[in-house]
Amino acid sequence: MRWLEVIGFKTTKFIEEIGHVSVLFLRTIKWSLRPPLGFRNILKQMEEVGVRSVPVVLITAISTGMVLALQSHTGFKRFNAESLVGTVVALSMTRELGPVLTALIVAGRAGGAMAAELGTMRVTEQIDALSTMATNPIKYLVVPRLLSGMLMLPILTIFADAIGIAGGYFVAVQMLDVNPVVYMRRTFDYLEYDDIFGGLLKAFVFGAIIATISCYKGFNTQGGAEGVGKATTGAVVISSMLILISDYFLTSMLF
Known about the structure:
mainly alpha, 9 helices, 86% helix, 0% strand, elongated
C-alpha cells in the first residue's frame, strides 16, 4: 500500500499548490484595485518584461515565419497550392505560434528573473522587512509584475506576429518566387480580426500565468542560494507547462 500513500501525498500537495497560487492571484487582483498603483514600479517591470525581451522575441518570430513559409511551400508545391503559403503563415502566427512562442520566451527570460529576484529577497529577509515597515509585499512586489505581464505580452505578440508574417513574405516572394500580389491577397482574404484578437487574448492570459507562477515561486523560496535556483527552475518549467496546457483549452474556446 506504499504506492497509494505516495499518490495520495502527491495529490494533496498538488491541490494545496493550486490553492496557494489561486489565493496569491486573487489577493494580487484585490490589491491592484486599491490606489495608489505605483506607476514607477509598473513602468520598471514593463521595461524588464517587455522592452528587454524584444530582441529575442523578434529573432524567434522572424525565424519561425521564414521556416514556416519554407516548409509550407515545400508541402503545398506537391498539390499546386503555393498561393496558400501566406494564409498558413498568417493564421499560424496570429493564432498559435506568435502568442505561444512569445510566452515561452518571456517565461524563460523574465519569469525566471522574477522568481530569482523575489527568491533572493525572501532568503535575505527583505520581504519580511517590507512587512515590518507596514508595506504590503504583494502590493509592492507582485502587483507591478502581474500588471506588466498582462500588458506587455499582447504588445510583444503583436510585434512577433508582424515580424513573423514579414519573414514568411520575404522567403516566399524573394526566395521561392511566389507572386507577391497573390501572397498578400491570400493573407488578408482569410485572416480575420477574430484570429488576431484571439491570439492577443491568449497572450494576456499567458502573461498572468507567468507573473503569478514566478512570483509565487519567489515568495515561497527556502534554503538559501540553492533554494533560489530551484525556485527559478520551477517557475520556468511550471509556467511553460501551464502555457502549453492552457493554450489547448483557450484554442477550443476561442476558435
